[in-house]
Amino acid sequence: MDKKTEIAKRDDQNIEKTRELYEVAPAVDIYENEDEILLYADMPGVAKDELSVNIDNGRLSLSGVRKLETSGAASWEEFGNVEFVRNFSVPQTIDVEKVEAELKNGVLTLHMPKSEEAKPRQIEIKTA
Amino acid sequence: MFTRFSDIDRLFGTMDLLRQRLDNLYTDYGRPYGTRWLMDEGFLRANLYQTGDGFEMRLEVPGMEKESLGIKIQGNYLEISGSRDQKLPDGYKVHKTERGNGTFSRSFTLPDDVDGNRVEATLKNGVLYLTLPKSEAAKPRQITIN
């Protein structure tokens, strides 16, 4: 392969993605007990259909796009349309099928139950 | 070696991207990585827009119920206060707490007087939308010449 075709090929592979929105990290609270991992994330202005939660291969990714309804000329603007993005590593023992997500008042609540095998077990000692 | 013009273009594109990232780091606009919600300082973000006959306001109030929000208007003085008090669930270990609870109060002096009786407020997805129509006295008037 001569150099020219090689470069052309590289161009094809290099698909550039343009972003119009700022990517910001939402503030989160994370709690854990024996049964589940509980996550809260502040995403004010994100509607349900603009939110995506993905758990794949031990990686949890949250993404929510905020589209504000505005009208008129801005006198001042302290927040704008953004994409809330944050990624976490989660244990493989999360039961992905039973994960529950709820969006209320701009706060995402994510219940991630642990699978049965991952829960601590009390072992009974038998007396002979 | 740059064999093509597009290579040079791409190089500058990368530099632009880096510059944007750095800009993002040092501005509060859009809450970049590493900053906390301003609730901790008792301050919430607000936007103000001017429409012909009034104002539109947007406030970030994630996790707040409408019962915990208060809006006061007198003339061109607007005061918004609220609180967020989310209990730590029982029996959970804490890994991260970035969100914070507390109260906030913020007051604004609007450019014109507002008709307090016709103000509308709606809470949607953690954003408070306010429609503030100007009072009749503050509206521009056409004067006819006799």
Topology:
The complex is a heterodimer of chains A (128) and B (146).
Chain A: H1 3-13, E1 22-24, E2 28-32, E3 36-42, E4 46-56, E5 59-66, E6 73-77, E7 82-89, E8 100-104, E9 107-113
Parallel strand pairs in A: 1-7
Antiparallel strand pairs in A: 2-3, 3-9, 4-5, 5-7, 8-9
Chain B: H1 5-25, E1 46-51, E2 54-60, E3 69-74, E4 77-84, E5 93-97, E6 102-109, E7 120-124, E8 127-133
Antiparallel strand pairs in B: 1-2, 2-8, 3-4, 4-6, 7-8
Euclidean distance between termini CA atoms of chain A: 77 Å
What is the third-level CATH name, the topology of the largest domain in chain B?
Answer: Immunoglobulin-like
The pLDDT mean of chain A sits at 84
Examine the coordinates and then state which fold CATH places here, giving the name of the CATH topology of the domain at 22-68 and 79-116 in chain A: Immunoglobulin-like
Helical content of chain B stands at 10-25%
Largest sheet of chain B: 4 strands, antiparallel
Please give the CATH class of the largest domain in chain B: Mainly Beta
| Tally of strands of chain A | 9
Mean pLDDT over the residues of chain B:
81
CATH architecture of the domain at 22-68 and 79-116 in chain A: Sandwich
The biggest beta sheet of chain A is recorded as: 4 strands, mixed
- The SSE string of chain A, one letter per element, is HEEEEEEEEE
InterPro entries (chain B): A-crystallin/Hsp20_dom, HSP20-like_chaperone, Small_HSP
Keywords (chain B): Stress response
Organism (chain B): Desulfotignum phosphitoxidans DSM 13687
Protein name (chain B): Heat shock protein Hsp20
